Amino acid sequence: MITRRALFAGGLSLGLSALPRRAPLSDPFRLGVASGEPTPGGVVLWTRLAMEPTAPDGLGGMPSRPVPVHWQLAKDENFRHVVRRGTEQAVPDEAHSVHVELDGLQPGAEYFYRFKADGELSPIGRTLTAPAPGTRTRALNLAFTSCADYQSGWFTAYRRMAEDEPDLIAFLGDYVYEYGPYQHPVRDQAGGECLDLAGYRLRHAQHKSDPDLRLAHAVAPWAVVWDDHDIANAWMGGELEPGRQAAAFQAYYENMPLRRAQKPEGTRLRMYRSLRWGAVANLHLLDTRQYRDPYACADGAGTVGPECVERFAPGRTILGKAQEEWLDGELSRSRATWDLLGQQVFLMEMDWVNGAGEGYSNEGWDGYVASRDRLAAAIDRYGRNGVVLTGDVHSHWAGEVRRDFRDPESKPVAVELVTTSVTSAGDGLDEYPNTAALLAENPHVKFFNGRRGYVQARLTQREMAVDFRSLPRVTTPGATAYTSGSFVVEAGSPTLFAP
Fold first, then answer.
1. H or E segment at 247?
2. How far, in whole angstroms, is CA 243 from its chain's centroid?
3. What is the pLDDT of residue 26?
4. How much is the pTM?
């Protein structure tokens, strides 16, 4: 019998089934299983069939015909108490992916699921539904991370997250990188630069073939949102080679446990949405790429100085008008203790130049100051406990979001927790030679760590306890995670305290 202990110890790679397996080449579940988008009564179950994940055409060595995929959902890992079952058709036009969108389940419950196709059983996955609306006694154990470049290192951070057994994993962007092969990679990548549907499908499949990533998907539901490299470097909506954007959107949906509401229509895909964890937390997933205004001062995604006054223009937006209005409405109606904003780029002001000079990221919210001001005002106006969850910059940071960064006496209205990457930027360092000077330039920033890893948080009605988890290396596999920093945020006080 395969136990839950085996799941968390890595039994996933063995198939998590006591039944005998056929020869390895017959296994269509090489990309594992996943779940996501939990609600009080439902969840999405996902798998994608692939017998050859790195097949150049991106179709995983599957036949050009539909394949029936049977699924089961049970209250126990031995599947003695099956509560739902059904069959879906995995079709070539969607890369033989399956999205089972369930409803009518018990709120706040743990379930186990599996699939069967061509006589083969999939690995077993564990998932959770969200607590019932109004529930304040159920804490949220959340893990979040970003930026997994296959060529830059091993996905050990995913395994360490899985070992923590979170309730929910939030991935904040750059699940894959579209780049072609590096000159000196840590791991060899299949395929060249992603430019078409076959390329994006292949890139996702190679990532999913990694056992550490498959384990992280199997232990908890995920909530995902994209960043630029899921499409193209520094992407900001449109402006790509014909067909490339639609191809990236299609492959992203095919490979993620998303709902039909996130199924693309060509170059249209609405990623912004909210998930609710009882009355403890709302997770608002934002899209800072697709609807933003062009970069200020025509300087691209780099750093701009004080001479670039365009970044202060009142009408500039990083979210787009419709998404800003949606988020304002979500905050105004929220009755949860915590409002988490899962998004991609630095929201806090950040002067990246040591000394007398100034330099601000044109790619982050510093390039869209009016947009940040409107969001900070909304959090303040509605009295929300705002916590910004950020990826992108390949290092851990923690700081406080001021109501107006141009006023040194301005009060904090939210905190920002920035997760490092899974692998991007290699092993890194705990501290760099300029770290102390950089923190001195930005006194609202309270913490930095330059290793790879993830963030672990526990949210209750009273407080949010945060551990920044770091890995000493990713250029070799199997590193042990350690806590590089810890903070507590008390409800009603948007400041960071060391416990």
1. helix 244-254
2. 25
3. 81
4. 0.95
